[in-house]
Design brief:
about 220 residues
Amino acid sequence: MKLYRQNNILLLTISCLLLISCSQKTEGKLGSRVASLPYYQEASFTPYWFEKGTTAQKTFHQIPAFRFTNQEGKTITETTFKDKIYITDFFFTTCPGICPKMTANMDILQQEFKDDDEVLLLSHSVTPEMDSVPVLKAYAKNKGIDSKKWHLVTGERSQIYDLGRNYYFVEEDLGETKTDDDFLHTENFVLIDKNRQIRGIYNGLNKTAVQQLIADIKTLQLE
């Protein structure tokens, strides 16, 4: 009996040491939750899994063509993001609430991938009638935004709202019909792959979620 207890204690000690060792190796680092990221096609964000390159994957939900103007007065379309991974959100320059924190967390992404041409950022103004090119440029300058990395865009309100609600699915009001007159305001960041397909949604106010987004971007780059 004494030998049995000693063996149990030894096994427990070894297990604890292994657990501590693993914790020390991963402390401060977030790994992706999965080896490959799922795909999404509607507002419930139910995950779908495909083998890359299959017909089912290639024909799955895709962000459609779009046309906007960025803070430098340059035309931004879906071809701007050809062969790019990008993260998108929706904001407005005079927002006193969630937008400043979202912008600060987007800047974390900007700094993380500042030397990586494969990753871009795209922020849509939800008050395009007020956020003109000069306004966006002043905002970008104030926030330290690199116009080659991060596009702040303005354009037709109807297209911005249609993309946000019906293609990026950034709002959480499932089943509630809305029009352009209903203000679009959300803290969500959406991860888009090189095929303009949705691969993740994240709380843009939460730094842990932003770190998870960084990890997921790196997973996506391995595909």
